[in-house]
Amino acid sequence: MQSDATQGHYERLADKYDENWAYSPEFTLWMTSNLLSRLTPSLEKSRLLDVGCGTGLYARDLAAHANVVVCADLSPAMLQRLPADERLIPLLAGAEDLAGGRVQLPHDDYDGILMKEVIHHLNDPAQVLAGLSRVLRPGGRILVVMLPSDIDYPLFGAALDLFRERQPAPPDIAAAMRRCGLQTELTYDEFPLVFSVERYTKMVRNRYMSLLASFNDSELEAGISEIRRTNPGPEVRFPDRFAFVLGVKT
After folding, report:
1. Is residue 4 over pLDDT 90?
2. Burial 135-162 (b: 16+ CB within 10 A, else e)
3. What is the pLDDT of residue 22?
4. 79 is in which domain, residue-wise?
5. Mean of all residue pLDDT scores within the chain
6. CB within 8 A of 102, min separation 6: which ones?
7. Strand arrangement, sheet containing 47-51
8. Which end of the chain is less crowded, N or C, counting CB atoms within 10 A of the terminal residue's CB?
9. What is the DSSP secondary-structure string of the chain?
10. Does some domain include residue 16?
11. Is residue 77 part of a domain?
């Protein structure tokens, strides 16, 4: 379950969330295309569940290809920023709440479940995946989108070390899906990112990644100084690489 500190981090981040994570229309379009090609929703009938939806950055595009998208998140501030769309149903709940039946879903079953950059917050990802797989219809799909165990982000050393310590390995998540009886596929894709150093350090200062909430202000400023030393030019360039772990209920 998300810690109180992590939940508080997302409450504070809500008004800056899209600014920090949308990057560019090209990135959002690229990610949306990856989600749609794997979840394959059908406009006429599909019911989707977006677990950890945030502000609905991707749910709003998924809704254009589905009948309804249930948007679940632990942050009321995030849910308040969902677009006004009758196809988007807000639900104040976390992954553990849904998997354990502590919060009732508005439908009995779903054609697709999205968990984008949620899995690293969970104490027991395998247990959550097992619980969520039970609400999939036959042929339904669950898609976990996560960062790989190593990233090329231009962060400071202590942040990269903490990331490696906390991040689950995508093959382990795929194995957990297989133990749920799902047919599983693990693929990777990446998008080239370019930021001015000023914008990227502003994102770091805003703690755009939840792991940055583990550093106090002085530690973060020291980290930003390190980023500037290791990136003396006007820009930072790096690949944003994602693992897409897909499970299909046969």
Report:
1. no
2. bbeeebbbbbbbbeeebebbbbeebbeb
3. 55
4. 4-193+240-249
5. 91
6. 93, 96
7. 88-92, 68-73, 47-51, 110-116, 136-146, 235-249, 182-196
8. C
9. ---HHHHHHHHHHGGGHHHHH---HHHHHHHHHHHHHHH---TTT-EEEEET-TTTTTHHHHGGGSSEEEEEES-HHHHTTS---TTEEEEE--HHHHHTTSS--SSS-EEEEEEES-GGG-S-HHHHHHHHHTTEEEEEEEEEEE--SS------HHHHHHHHHHPPPHHHHHHHHHHTTEEEEEEEEEEEEEEEHHHHHHHHHTT-SGGGGGS-HHHHHHHHHHHHHH--SSEEEEEEEEEEEEEEE-
10. yes
11. yes
pLDDT band at 188 (very low <50, low <70, confident <90, very high): very high
Q: Is residue 235 part of a domain?
A: no
Number of domains in the chain: 1
Q: Is 198 part of any domain?
A: no
Which CATH number fits the domain that encloses residue 71?
3.40.50.150
Percent of the chain with pLDDT over 70: 91
Angle between helices 125-133 and 170-179 (to 10 degrees): 40
